[in-house]
Task: structure prediction
Amino acid sequence: MNQNAKHTVELAKALFREERSIKKLTGWFRIRETAAREEQKYRSLSAERATAALLREELTALPLSISENAVFAGTQRDAFARTYALINPSFRVETFAGYCDPTAVFGDIDPDEEFPKERIEKLRQYTLNTPYVRELTAMYKAAESYTGEVIYFVEQVTGHLIPEFGTALQYGTLDLIRTAKEKAAAETDPERADNLLAFADALDCAGLLADRYRAIAAQKQAAAEKTGDAEKASRFGRIAAALTRVPRYGARDLYEAIQSFMILWEIMCIEQAPNPYAFSVGNADRIFEPYRHGLSREDAAALFCHFLVFFNVADRSWAISQNLLVGGRDIDGNDLTNPTSYSLLDAYYEMNLPQPILSVKLHKNTPDRLYAELGRFFFSPGVLTPSLFNDDSLFTILAEKGVAPEDIEAASVAGCQEPLIRGKDNANTTNSWLNLGKILELTLTGGVSTVTGKKLCDFEKIPAKDLLPRLREQFYKNMETAVGWMVDSANGASRALSHLRVPFLSSFMGGLDYGYDTRDTDRQGTKYNGSGCLIHGLSVVADSFVAVDHLLRERPEDADRLLDALRTDFKDDPELREYLLSCPKFGNNLPEPDQEAAEIANRVSDMVNRSLNYLGNPFRADWSSPTTHLTYGYWVGAMPSGRKSRDMLNYGVDPLYGSAESGLGMRMLSNMQLPFCKMCGGYASHLGIDPKYFPAPDFEGKGLQFKERVIEPLFFNPAVKGVSPFYLYVNVTTPETLRKLLKNPKKYAPSGVYIVRIHGTFVNFLDLSPDVQEDIIRRLDPASTADIGA
Amino acid sequence: MDRKTLVYFQKGFNFSQDGPGNRLVYHLYGCNLRCPWCSNPECFAKDAKTQTQSVEEIADEILRSRPMFFSGGGVTFTGGEPTLQFDALRELLQILKKEGVHTALENNGTHPRLPELFPFLDYLITDLKHPFSEEHRRITGAGNETILSNLRAAAETRQLALRIPLIHGYNTSPACVAGFVSFLSSLPRRPDFTLELLRYHEYGRVKWERHGMPYRVSGGFVSPEEFSAIRGAFLGAGIPLINT
Result:
């Protein structure tokens, strides 16, 4: 590595260390406080214009700084609170509350002299009385008997989008502002005209933030010149110079493009503070490659090291689930990997940070070089591993969903693994969450929880001997009912959130074309729109149906006994539980449970996909469970599969841990039979793989073996009919390795960072709460993934 | 007509260890030899967990596993000694051959009718544990005449992967090595014939103990120097070696 690049990387590492030392996050509070204080001033304006005006006030009042180690100006720190449950050591699965309290975040600031209790309480009270919170609270109140034990769950979705910053990087925000104003002037609809002017006002904030940072950089440059520190003077001089140009005008090189991007991203997050999780960059290699202009791989990688640090917030990288993608194909199947893809990979490997998530898009013509270069990620212990996407399948699914051919290659992911079109798709990802396990429990009892004994809903009560033979029919009937309740609540959450306008973000989500806010629930402001529904418990329910069939066939006299055993969590009937556990289970390449799982996935996906959201667009079936298989499992009683009450549900479309015991090959065969074509909202699947399965002597060779032994058979298998799987994440490690790490972190992770995959995101294993650490270890599940030769 | 069944004690995929590519491997129960170094002693342990399935059921399972037969893979029957279940195995291999599944058999070469299976096999893996019959009988419980004649027949007609397990104190003396070399030099040499020398390991020890059977090999490891000398003897006689 050349000296310049080496120094730049060292600065990035110092910057990250500095970020991790931050224990207090108060920027979001100041932002909301400014908005509350200034709101009166803009009461006469429309909601959209007022929001844009308040964004300017917030950015004017916010204290800013540039680190001594910075190469670029900008931070996301002010948009986030120390909140996210999974990386909060006090998180326990039993703490799930059945609702999202939008004021709970005020509990995340420890009162001190600057932020005394009264100041925090005042803003909390103000927030409680906003139309957004009032409406959201009323929605939760109406749904509480359904959401309390998670028949379903809903939430208001912030973040979770992929802005199209490409035009702004190329032409500058002034060009976008001009466009917005011209369109407003020509617009006959007064609401659209007003919105377009709001977008122009919001975009103008980019210049404001750039100016403020430029002034700080210039001061630092002058101070460095005074002390004769030429390196620092030059570095801050470069920041100041870049900010005189971007983001107002188009970027001329990679440095300016990254700086421009960071300013835009910062404002986008501040607009939604606190906690706009899961915004996604999209294909960063495609976004930045036009600006590389022959910059060497290592010089570009050094700049990207700083870009990656930008996505890490404070001591635990609290801004979680931000995605950055590389690779993929165009609509004709040509590979779109470029030199910037490899520079980004170098930066990821060099820095090994908990954020942002790296996702790699693959297709059947992906060059071997990419697989070879990925080897180092999969096979270095404690190093991040990318999520893997199959563009070939994804393109088919998106085309079937109605995405225009010219938009498909911009498919990216926001959140964990939910596919969206960059800048053109508001999928309301994570809007609703459906719990198949709970619905089966309540079907068996006529609506009474076996966990708490409470009557939760009015499902028909049928005696066991009549119910069990037609359990499926009754389950699907109740499922239709529950989906109806869920849709009403989910749309209610979206309507409540629409009170919080986002004119800045909307400018990058099609707002300049459509003239509406991307959150508008009455008029569509983004080309594609839907609502994501995360569906939980596939294999647990499939295994339950199969076990009931076997019981009725082999021990019909025990039908009544089953319901008693479920009610008491098998306490008095361990023998029956043993029998149920011995029935065939999904994940072992056995036709009975595999076909059952496919049928459930088909029917439930259809129910979800034909439900309509607030704009009349379909919900999107998303078979993911981002650790909610733990929290929701806690509220699901004993199942006919033999699963005990409060135990976890299966993860995503995977078998329940411990129930697939025939090795990786058999598990992959079961997985391949699922109807991925119906999973247009996404799905989750994880393999914990023993590194011994890849014996090549070097990383490159192992990367190619990973392609041959995992990716090609799963994603690009000519023997598979229909749409192949399109998502996978892996942890190439063993339970023993992680237990050793927990016992002796100083020995096995001297840096304090040991990255593992948890679901759609990767995290520092040592940052996780104990419950989640244990979940990861259990789901490595060697019997389901280690083949006999491994 | 009787439904033929097969009894196995383990099944699952592995890659390139028991034949080319990714393979579904069935370990069939039962063995007529008692090699002291056996790494799968559950094949004759009385308390082994076994599963019995009909030929048709196993054929169905193999056919629906086809998507995982990548990189030239297929199915391998090993053991135990798979030819102890000869009739059912032959019927299954016939079905698989007809369906175009790549088939491999790993066996000890003792079954007198082994050549009857050749038309249904793409790949034959056989062990040769000792070149001299009396010693072979003393160590494993059976002589090697049939093994040698089956190996000769196989070498003449099909792809043969021969493996010699090297266990110090049993079959690594210069006289033994000379006996191996002499026999192999007398075989017709097809271009796809391969020979692999397997150095002793103790992976089986824990399984013997788990099944309450004493593990009797001690000092079986082959030193790097001894292994190098043995390799040299084969290579010097123009017998190429492979290493999987």
Remarks:
- The two ends of chain A are 37 Å apart (CA to CA).
- The longest strand of chain A covers residues 357-362.
- Chain A has a mean pLDDT of 94.
- Chain A has 32 helices and 17 strands.
